[in-house]
Design goal:
alpha+beta, Arylsulfatase, C-terminal domain, 4 helices, globular
Length: 181
């Protein structure tokens, strides 16, 4: 998911935190990516919140799988002029008679930062819902709690593999999915 342009932006990342909802609130967790001031966007913190359900299934309460993610909410990134890595600007030239007219067109570009798009973002969701939820789960359960191991490269051989059933449910291929590169 991380492209070369993303790496330049991610150099400004200072911390990643997971915040859980309070007991009286609906069950959720928020992933916070904290950045120092940079030339790419104005935000100091980019967030992604996942809502969860923990009620047992009424039809079979004894075989509940536990809490499950039921929705996510991203944040808007306030990009600085010409620095948005989630769009690619292309110049088009049209010939109209004897003169040519040039226009620019913005198209979505592959970027890690599309992960933060709200579900109703005009550019549309780039990640399918199952992949979005798996990334949230991966950040919450693996990457953030074991960040020191990844930082010291002790976890360099770690591979997060989903089961064949999870991959099929997500509509993916039947091979194992490697999340870490």
């Amino acid at each position: 998911m991380i492209r070369r342009n993303d790496e330049l932006v991610l150099q400004h990342l200072e911390d990643v935190k997971i915040k859980f909802s309070e007991v009286e609130e609906p069950m959720s967790f928020t992933i916070e990516f904290i950045f120092r001031s940079n030339e790419y966007f104005f935000n100091k913190v980019l967030t992604k919140t996942y809502r969860m359900r923990s009620d047992p299934d009424d039809s079979d309460p004894f075989f509940s799988k536990g809490p499950e993610i039921i929705g996510s909410t991203g944040c808007e990134i306030y990009w600085k002029e010409g620095k948005n890595v989630t769009v690619k600007t292309t110049k088009l030239q049209k010939c109209e008679g004897r003169r040519s007219v040039s226009t620019t067109r913005k198209m979505p570009s592959c970027s890690f930062f599309t992960y933060f798009y709200p579900p109703d973002y005009p550019e549309g969701r780039v990640l399918d819902v199952a992949t979005d939820y798996k990334l949230g789960y991966f950040f919450r359960e693996v990457l953030v709690p074991k960040s020191v191991l990844f930082f010291t490269n002790e976890a360099s051989g770690y591979k997060y593999e989903s089961s064949d059933n999870e991959v099929q449910e997500a509509g993916g291929e039947e091979k194992k999915v490697e999340v870490m590169r």
